[in-house]
Amino acid sequence: MKIVVGDGADVEEPSEEKGFGPSASLININTADLSSLMELPGIGEVTAKNIIAYREENGSFKTKDEIKQVSRIGEKTYAKIEELICI
């Protein structure tokens, strides 16, 4: 809850960095394109291409943690993106 006294002109709204926060949309790893995947922390162009190639070869991810089967995604990277992705 926020209470503003006066016209509210001097009130700063909180901002979320990089669009990741409670109100940010999750990235669907079954449908995301290259640029969307690259928005995830620790996911560069090569890894994003690996995710897409994995989907093309194996079909859609059945669980979020299946993404760890993709080359270059281990436990540390998964821990960074787990709360930002969905299937």
Describe this structure in words.
This protein has 87 residues and is mainly alpha-helical. It has a domain at 33-86: Tex RuvX-like domain-like (DNA polymerase, domain 1, Orthogonal Bundle). It is 29% helix and 5% strand. It is built from three helices and two strands, in the order βαααβ. Strands 1-2 form a two-stranded parallel ribbon. The longest helix has 14 residues, at 45-58. The radius of gyration is 17 Å and the shape is globular.
Record keyword descriptors for this entry:
single chain, globular, mainly alpha, DNA polymerase, domain 1, two-stranded parallel sheet, 29% helix
CATH domain topology of the domain at 33-86: DNA polymerase, domain 1
Total count of strands: 2
Strand content: under 5%
Indicate the radius of gyration in whole angstroms.
17 Å
Outline the biggest β-sheet.
Answer: 2 strands, parallel
SSE arrangement:
Blueprint: E1 27-28, H1 34-37, H2 45-58, H3 75-81, E2 85-86
Parallel strand pairs: 1-2
What's the gist of this structure?
This protein has helices at residues 34-37, 45-58, 75-81; strands spanning 27-28, 85-86. The chain has 87 residues and is mainly α. It has a domain at 33-86: DNA polymerase, domain 1.
